Amino acid sequence: MVQVQFLWCYGGTQVFLYHSFSGERVAMSLIEGSSTVFSAFLDLPPGRHQFKFLVDNVWRIDDRLSCCQDDTYGTISNFILVTEQGLITPTIESFTPSMVIANEIPQPMLAASTSGDVQQGPVLSLPVLDMYATRLHLSMHMSSYTTYDLLPESSEVIALDVNLDVEEAFSVMYRKGLAVLPIWDAPRRRVLGMLTASDFIFILLKIHQRRAVPTNVMHELRTISALKEGKLEFRREGAGSSSLAYRSLIQAGPDESLQDLARRIVQHRISAVPILDATEDGSCPKLLHVACLAGILKHVCTHLGNRLEYLPLLQQPVGSLRLGTWRTDGGSSGSLLLTLRPRELLGYALHLFIEAQISAVPIVDDDGSLLNVFSRSDIISLANGSVHAQIQLDQRTIAEALALVDGGAHNRYQICEPSDSLHKVMELLSDPVVRRIIVINSDNKHVEGIITLRDLFTFLLS
Question: Is 129 helix (H, G, I), strand (E, B) or coil?
Answer without folding.
Answer: helix
